[in-house]
Structures are given as C-alpha cells and as structure tokens.
Amino acid sequence: MIHNKATASGTSQPQKLDVIIIGAGLAGMYQLFRVRELGMSVRVIEAGSDVGGTWYWNRYPGARFDSESYTYGYSFSKELLQEWSWSEHFAPQPETLRYAQHVADRFDMRRDILFKHKVVSAEWLEESREWQLKLHTGALMTARFLITAAGSLSVPTLPRIKGIEQFAGVACHTANWPHEAVRFEGKRVAVLGTGATGIQTIQEVAKTAAHLTVFQRTANWSAPLHNSPITPEQQIAIKSSYSDIFKRCRESISGFIHNPDPRRGVEVSEQEREEFWEKLYKAAGFGIWIGNFRDLMTDRQTNAWMSDFIARKIRQRVKDPGIAEKLIPKDHGFGTRRVPLESGYFEIYNQANVELIDLRETPIERITPTGIRTAQRDFEFDMIIYATGFDALTGAYDQIDIRGTNGRRLKDQWAQGARTFHGFQSEDFPNLLMVMGPMGPLGNIPRVIEYNVEWVSKLLKHMQTKGLTRVEARPESVQAWMDVVKAASIGLLSNEVDSWMTGVNTNVDGKTARVLSRFSGTGPDFRSRCDAIAADGYPELDMK
Ligand code: NA7
Fold first, then answer.
1. Which residue CA neighbors atom 36 of ligand 1 most closely?
2. Domain boundary at 334, 357, 386, which?
3. For residue 8, what pLDDT band results from cuts at 50, 70 and 90?
C-alpha cells in the first residue's frame, strides 16, 4: 500500500495512481477506506477544507438530520458504533460534521485527501487505460479508476432573478454558509425557498430576527419531526441493538427504520385512517411519509385524504386563515415531493416578526440594492438567504468536463436525462465508477452509500484478482437497467410533480422538463439485482 502525503503534481509529469476519488463526504471517505484495503494507491480530491461533504457545506442555522441519528452513521465498524454517541434523535449539523471529522481521524484518512482542490476535467486515455484529471491549479493526475463520490445535492443553485448581484446587504445560499456564526438580532432577513432547507432555516431565523420575510413559491407538505435528546438509557439500548437497527434498515424499502404499513388507505374505515394518521403525526421522523399506508404514493384517493388530514393540521396551527391557506399546497399531494420535517414551523407564522409572501400572487420582479421588489411592493433587507436548492443528481457531473471514449462529453451524453447501469457506470466511460450516480436508488443516504461503495470495491477486487484493467457497461446493459427504472416508476404520483427528484430546477438551463432520474424501486430489490451481477461474474459489464 502506498501512503504518501496527499499532494498533486504541478509539473508536466502527472501523478499516477490506481484510484482517484472525487469528494470527501461520507461516500468518498468510506470509498477511501475500502480502496486502501485493496492495497491500491489512492487520492481523494475535495473542494472543501475538511471532510464531511453535505455536512461541511450546509452550515445554515437549523440544519439537522431528518433520519434517526443512529441509522445515519456508518455501520461498517463495530468499534466506531460503540465509541460514538449521538446526542439527539435527529442530530444537528455541527455534531454530524464532528462525526465525519472523528471518522477521518480514527481511520487516518486525511493523509490521502487533497483538500481545497477542484477537478476541472477528466479525460479517458484509451491507450494507457487511465483517467487523466486536471485540477483547478493546472496540476495533472492520472489513475486507472476514477470514482465519483461528489454528492447528489452538492451544487447549490441561485435563483435567476434580475439584479441579484446588486444587493448591498449580506446574501448567502444555505449551502455556502459562512464558517463564522451569523447573528440575526436586529436584522431584517429574507428567506427565499421553502423546501427542507428553507423550513429548517426559517424556524431558526424567526427566533431572533427583528423581521423575517419568507418568500414562498410552492407551499410544501411538512410534518413534525419530534426531535428530543437521547437519554443515557436510550443510548445504552441503541448501542446494544445496532445489528437489529441496521437489519431493519436493510430490509426496509429505502434504508430507514420506517416501512410502509401493509394496509391500503382505501381499504380501511375513515376512523381507522384518522387514528393511524394521528398516531403518525405524533411520532418522530419519517414514519408519516414512509411508514404510511402502502398506497399513499400510488392511490389518488388515499393521497387526497392524507393531504386533507395535514391541511387540517395546518389550519389548526396557523391562526390567520388566509395565511394557513397559503401554506397548504394546492398543486401536489402529500409525500409526492420530499417531505420536510419541522419543529414548530407553522406556528412561526403566528409571530408578529414573521411575514409570508406568496410568489404565485406577487412574483419577484427584481433584487434591488436594498432588498426585493415584488409585483406589489419594495422590501428592505439587511440579509437575503437563498434556500433555493441544488442542481441535483447530475449537477456535480456537469461541473466537470468529463470525456470518455472518442472524446465524448458525459454532459452531452446525459443531455436528455442521465442513463446509467444501476447508477454505477455510464456507457462510453470505462473505469468511471459512480457512488450513488443518477438512476440509482435514494433513501437514507449513508445506507445507500455503504452498499454502493461495497459493490464498487468488490468490482475493483474482482478486476485486481483477474488482472483486468478496463471495465465498461455495455449499451444493452444500460438500456436494460433503464427499462427497470422506468417500470419501477409506473404509477408513482411523485412522477407527476416538479421537484429535484424528477430532475426539475428552474434555475438551471435544460432542467425544466421532468425526467426519470432515480430508481424508485426498493433497496432490497436493488441490492439483490446488484448482488446477482457480482455473483455471476459481471456478465453485463465488458471487462478486459
Ligand atoms: P429544494 O427542495 O429543491 O427546495 C428549493 C426551494 O427553493 C423550493 O421551495 C423552491 O420553490 C425554491 N426556489 C427555487 N428557485 C426559486 C426561485 N427562482 N424563486 C423562488 N423560489 C425558488 O431544496 P432544499 O435545499 O430545500 O432541499 C434539497 C434536499 O436537501 C432535500 O430534499 C433534503 O433531502 C436535503 P419551488 O418548490 O421550486 O417552487
């Protein structure tokens, strides 16, 4: 095993490695751990100054898990599980970042990570069967395998609003939040965006800002998180049952401890439905979304009843009936977009210092040097917070000029929507292996990451053992997987709605139409298909 300090050659002689990994978030870190085990030389290239990925960048106020903390950590090391204690059922961002840093220290990862470096291009060299990467410094590096662990939601997008660069106050996207503490006391603050991030941010800013104005384009269905500290007794119980917890995650549809109720909402009485939903509304975490009736995401009637149940909750919690109506989504059903979990979000609109602006009624015309102008009036702000989301799933790939066989660009290949083999490979891009690439499954992200990293590592080991140096997904294998992805998506109400999960982002060119962008089948189904591929010796992949 080669373990030099991580450096990139600035000379014309590229540094040669077995593996380069892009990204030192939870995926890149675990991939590094597994590649090292294979005795391969490896470097991780990371844009940030430390590990943690999502949890490094998203330092905005109120950032925290919506996954139970004890289902979110790595499961691969029993020692790590026993020595790390989560303090809350849904941990806040600073704690998760500390966790990632702890893992990096514990497994001595940083010496193989090149921080504060960006990959600008990656070119496949057919003759030598390797990838040549160019960094922003101009330095070149080559590796037999390129593994992308660059994140599904890692490229923040700002709204395309006239005058955005003219604002004279402080403006910040939540995913580029400063490392220093930001105070809101005495400030007039605007938040744009009411997705999972916006809702977390709004709750926190409303506590201290002199005035908070929320600009909402689309109301989102949101339900209580019910976070609480983990008591010492619960801590002991959690640590003694990790194998059961992860077994439950493995067997569930999307890696959470929650799994759909076997009943269909349309089959039970109104009373049974209401009792069940009341129970879910009082319970912590994603149960209300993932542990709901099994037809919630496919049956319009069940979905409409559930949406009505949540709408009634919003009306009960928001005093002003007009504001309550604005906060109730009218254009999509509950759960058809990612459900943000909240802690007192709706009550915030009862506060005198908080105002809600519905952009469907009064659109923004421009950002001015002093604030925001809507069709109705001018607002003055000291600070504008953009919680406007990400160029999801393919964004991190589009940032890099990736060229495969015959100089073909990945961005062009995916112009009409990404096409991959189980999210791991794209045709014409040999030896490019993706951890959680497009068209793979989403869910409780670390659970998906661990499986993906292990599958990729197993493939590397197979090639290493057999002396193989080139792997490429066959076009027919990609097509076969795309057919599976399409079949799995049939009947899902979420496909009828604009969201990052259907590939829509109005702030990105070419992302205005809905496309298939993820495998929406179950985790167990995905893993059994991928396990079978490996067990059969990877017949779908062309290996030399
Ligand atoms: P999301 O869920 O994509 O939400 C972005 C929000 O920003 C959403 O409310 C958007 O409204 C709004 N937005 C985006 N562009 C504009 C413009 N131009 N004008 C007004 N409002 C705008 O991103 P998040 O960061 O909240 O969450 C991403 C994921 O991270 C989340 O699912 C979790 O898994 C963690 P829209 O709904 O498009 O009308």
1. 218
2. 386
3. low
